[in-house]
Amino acid sequence: MRPPLFTLALVLLIPLIHLHPSYAQEAKPFRDPIVIRVIHLDYADAEYLASVLAPLLSKDGRVVAYRPTNSLIIKDRASLVKTLVKIIKGEPDPYPPYLLP
Predict the structure, then answer these.
(1) Is pTM beyond 0.85 here?
(2) Strand pairing partners for 7?
(3) Which of 5, 32, 55, 98 could covalently link to 77 via disulfide, CB atoms 3.0 to 4.6 Å apart?
(4) Domains observed in the chain
(5) CA separation for the pair 18, 10 (Å, rounded)
(6) Rg value, the chain, Cα
(7) Orientation of helix 78-89 relative to helix 46-53, angle to 10°
């Protein structure tokens, strides 16, 4: 009686994976660059908004209020800065969370 093809494939491949870890799937780190963005505010106070946004930043991020031009300078990962800019501009979330009644 011949062993099933799947079992035979496993017997041949498992030693390769143990000998060469590069054959196994490895999670590649997500490369999200750090960017700096200057946002000029017309109606909101930059210092107040900086204090509100600071807890939302990553450990690498920083937000600074520049008082003479009432601007925010945000340094963080590109995806997070993009989200913060949407929040500041008041753009609606395209996928709002579903609230149960």
Answers:
(1) no
(2) none
(3) 32
(4) 34-89 (3.30.1370.120)
(5) 12
(6) 25
(7) 130
